[in-house]
Amino acid sequence: MSGSILISSGGGLTRTENRPNIIISDIRKAPGDEKNDLARLLAREEINVCCTDSEAEILSGICSGEDRHMVIIRDGGLAAPAFDIIESIRKFSDIPLLTVSDDCSEIYRIMALSKGADACMSAGDMHHFESFEFKARVVSMLRRYVGMNPGTPIKKPLLGDTLINGELTVDRRRREVYSGGVRIRMTSIEYGIIEYLMENCGDVCTVEDIYRRVWQDTPYCVRKTVVEHIRRIRSKIEPDPHNPCYIKVVFGIGYKMEKAG
User: Are residues 131 and 11 located together in one domain of the fold?
Assistant: First the structure.
């Protein structure tokens, strides 16, 4: 990417091949002096960071053939959202995507998640930004996507079984979902949810259990986040998303994967 920088764990500008590569983009119309602060926060996390403020460079970076393992978009909230970029990325990639927004209101989060973001954080005042939570979220999302721990060589997800329920098939070796033999494109979060429900086919999974397993984080006021991801999954796998036959809601508790007859 033109004008991009790579930041390694020591704060230098060299690439280490066995580290994950992430793209950080600041698309705000009037970025402040804190631009690239997110990259600097990751400078000691043994992660290669490529910075850009161009939508075209984000998309070309993902399509370049190089391994890209995560996208972080810094935007201005509803005043200058990243929704169009998120939607463009989701047309061809399931790469983990985190937004860091000036205004992370409920409406913003619902819109960002519905377009395909995996998680949203509020930047607000960068002087009080939750930097430790930010770094923990990035490492957690990378771990789920590439099956790695910081500082270790990148590896593919561990081999597992094939899960089958009716027309649905989950190939855990490839982290892929099929319906009637046709591959259904899933984000990493969506895949994690459907894998968990398929593993517990017929059993009720609470919203908190789903969040704890897939996001690998402590569940706190997470119902709307899980509900929005379930809605997106249903739109992809259900013959009639408004009358689902696979993912059933258990009111007041959570969801279950209905066993096919």
Answer: yes
Torsion of CA 93, 155, 66, 118, to 10 degrees: 30
Query: Domain range spanning residue 234?
Result: 162-257
Burial of 119 by CB count in 10 Å (0-12 exposed, 13-18 middle, 19+ buried)?
Answer: buried
Same domain assignment for residues 219 and 194: yes
Structure tokens at 36: 């690239």
Global confidence as pTM? 0.61
| Residue range 85-95, pLDDT digits in tens | 999 888 888 88
The pLDDT of residue 126 is: 67
Q: State pLDDT tens for residues 183-222.
A: 999 888 999 999 999 999 999 999 999 998 898 888 888 8
Q: Say which amino acid occupies 135.
A: K
| Packed helices 83-90 and 55-63: angle between N→C axes, nearest 10 degrees | 20
Q: Please state the length of the chain.
A: 261
pLDDT per residue as tens digits for the range 9-41: 333 323 345 678 899 998 885 545 455 678 888
List Cα–Cα distances, 210 to 197, 206, 218, 255, in angstroms. Answer: 8, 6, 11, 9
For residue 207, being part of any structural domain is answered with yes
d(CA 146, CA 59): 20
* Dist CA 205 CA 197 (whole Å): 7
Cα 126 to Cα 25: distance, rounded to the nearest angstrom: 16
Any idea which residue has 């929704």 for tokens? 83
In the chain, the DSSP E strands lie at 6-7, 21-26, 48-52, 70-75, 97-101, 119-122, 162-165, 168-171, 176-179, 182-184, 204-206, 247-250, 254-257
